[in-house]
Amino acid sequence: MSASSAALIPRTVLLGSPKRWQPTLSPDGTRIAYLAPNEGDALQIWVCTLGQSDDRCVSAERRSIQIYEWAWDSNTILYRRDNEGDENLHLCAIDLETGNARDLTPWQGVRCHDTMTAAKRLGEILAALNVRDRRMMDVWRIDLRTGAATLEVENPGDVAWWIADDELVVRACYGFTPQGGCEVRVRSDASAPWRTLLKTSPDEEAWPLSFSKDGRELFLKSSVGRDTMCAVAMDIESRREREIAAMDGFDAEEMLIHPVRRELDAVAFAPARRKWVVSNIALRADFEALARADDGDLGVVSRDLADSKWIVAFTSPHRPIRYHVWDRESKASMFLFSHLPELETYELAEARPIKYRARDGMEIHGYLTIPRGVDPRNLPLVLNPHVGPWTRNYWEFDDSAQLLANRGYAVLQPNFRGSTGYGRKHLRAGYRQYGLAMQDDLTDAVKWAVDERIADPGRVAIFGGSYGGYAALAGAAFTPDLYKCAIDLCGFSNLLTKLKSARPIAGIRAIWNSRIGNPDDPADNELLAKASPLFAADKIKIPMLIAHGANDAFVIEAESEQIVAAIEERRVSDLCAVSRRGPRLRSPREHSGFPCARGAIPRRASGRSLRTDEQRAHRGFLGDREGNRQISFARSRTSGRAA
Q1: Any idea which architecture 344-636 has in CATH?
Q2: 9-33 pLDDT per residue, tens
Q3: pTM above 0.85?
Q4: Element spanning 560, H or E
């Protein structure tokens, strides 16, 4: 293999905090808010006047802010923050005139799951909170001026989320049935009784997203009676359904609904790259012009109240996200910024869509990233299964894939069975297949890459987080001769304990029971145990890197501790384990100080040479291969999960 001709990109550049990220327009269209790091490298909210350079930081949180939105008064910004990574997100508000910031949900241990707003109700919002019962989300009405909170709707116990109409009245909800299906309920007004609009089997899905302006129709993504999710509108009285957008073989992804007009304007699909079906004729000229403006995949990030200005994002795997302001009247685009401008000076690797046949004939789609400037033959390969598993990979910028490709590795990211986006059949094929057919799809991905002579079979690694971390453990335990090393970030090792310890969410256990297995049903115990890497830890013989966030609420730290103990007891593998306080890796200090999950790969998968500091980090992390095996389960005060 020839070395990559691309310049070596510093980890601090690739894995650093975005310089500016997630811009949004104020409802009146005069200002822009965005996230950017402060001096302590924590992402904060910044605001500037559109077209001017009067940027100022308006928040002062110790930890990074990830979620924020404008209130309809254009003077208040709402955001969420947790306490030391406990993932109990509090809802806070910043008054841009006074600079005052308030916690609108100050209850200890309470989590804000979602918010609902309406342009007609400038001074109030609805928030889904678990104040009354930590296991479920009720709806509370909050006065933005006084902070007063009033219980609006009680959760009967099975509702996962709520939908309000144009008057900010909660009139729809979504929940799970005991059989693992879903149920959508509606009501005519705030005093009317709830009634079932539709109920699905465990194999079908129907997700309510918004009411129409007049409140008579409900927009949904639905696979009821069809294989793929399509965009529909359903009359809540007659239950008549009209299909708005669909694509054979692929699910509807993003649905662009204007929050004031309450019309479904466009629907995105992702067969390989994103494709928009524009249902609003008035917007077709905008989408056509934007498609010519940039060769990346288009996303509409934010729109003002008048719908005269948009913020759009163009994404691609081989460059940072680029944001523009789009003026609909002049059909002109003004570049705002790139989220990692330092990367614009480097040549990044291309990612191409791929597909292969699994051993049972099922077609699997995915993405392959090849190091720039090399012959794509007999390369060291990193298999990178995604999180979830009920999500998918997209054609988009991925810092981990780019870091590995820049160091000389091909990166393969399959959308194995059980992934979303490819219809009911593809999703259903993953039911109760943890460690079985789902894992076989990953093994078959490696076989495909070897058969295509892309990958050297003697230099293959597996690396993933959350479900991908589980898959990395399963790969090491169930196919011990396939990989040369494995990296698990916050993965689970024992399905029995994982399912029992997970944070309860209304009705979600029924989904887990039907799609994974029921840990309380003796008939499923053998299935779950067989799929758990913990019980095959004695088969692990390759170097392992295991990392976990100490405060992770969704996959508790014990899931890593127990397999670390099992491997250490048997001393069958070189192992390094790291625990960090908090649930996620959110700063470049945490990423690069991770002494490089990517640093565990080079010696066994052997890509291009590393910089001296990466070699030093790798040696210090895994120790001397010729000396004694070592394990370190270190704790630090930084946050720690990569999900």
Answers
A1: 3-Layer(aba) Sandwich (3.40)
A2: 999 999 988 999 999 999 999 999 9
A3: yes
A4: helix 558-570
